[in-house]
Structure prediction request, 339 residues.
Amino acid sequence: MKAGRIALRLVAVAALCGLLGEAVARQWLTSPSAQMGDAELGWTWRPGATVANHKEGRARLHINARGLVDDELTPKGDRRRVIGLGNSFLEALQVDHAAQYPTLLEAALARPGQPGLDYVNAGRSAMGPPHYPLVAARLLDLQPDLWIVHLGEGDVLHLLGAQIQGGQVRPPPVAADRWKARVAPIIDRSALATYLMRRFKPLITRWLAPAGPAEPPLDDTTPQAAEVAVQRLTLILRELGDTAPVWVVHTPTLRYGVAGATEDLAPHEGRIYRAAAQAASARYVSAGPALVASYQRTGQPPVGFQNHTVGAGHLNAQGHQAVAEALQAPLRAWLEGRP
Prediction:
């Protein structure tokens, strides 16, 4: 009997610790996994879920019925609809929806008697330019008036690692993630399990599939790499342009130094994006000048968070405001039918 009581107490203590751990994880660490496997894109968000991010910044964001980190979509009416395609810089899990630059632009460009702007945020972490035609094909029923392709750090590597299929640029085939499929019923319901799985995933995958010889990293700074990247990005932009006009918006990778000094750490990326935009007859806009001006005006880097690394990482609220400022005048002219 005594051993039975001790066992029951241990079970009760373990259950209490689990409940407390789950509460702490949901409040300060993350939310239960909201991801679903996708044969083309690797994964997508589960419609209706809430995504809590506390690793970099602190935000809780709603996943709409289309699986996008955005408000629920409504008929566009007389509004002009922009669909943004991009990676985690556009998706912006680090800041609240009201502080993201698509939302800021919608508010800034609302004018009585003029068509408003509906800026659909179709960004998703870990995607690159080869994914964007696949995403765009799923959103054509939204009747976009303009595609804006948001490009930045790492997108050249996505282009170099892509495949060419029938003259189209596509991402590499999605690898089956068997271990995640096995634990999906748990991480879909538990924030604590989701957090632990993310922390220990490298160990789990190494245990399930020991790594072979490491492949040499791609060098995206050579003239040969630039030529390939320009050609592939041009194909992507032209494919998107078959359904609506295309703009390219570049958020450069900047180092923020003392006394307002900045340095572009990847100038080759901007040259590639600009060249491809020109070849595809797409408009090119750089957010670099607005980010530099924001830093020089405030003395605070427009990227990074106190719970991550200040001056490095994703756009913070100040950075989103700067990107909105970079796009406001061009989009206003577009809404008014001016060149």
Notes: The mean pLDDT is 87. The chain is about 40% helix and 15% strand.
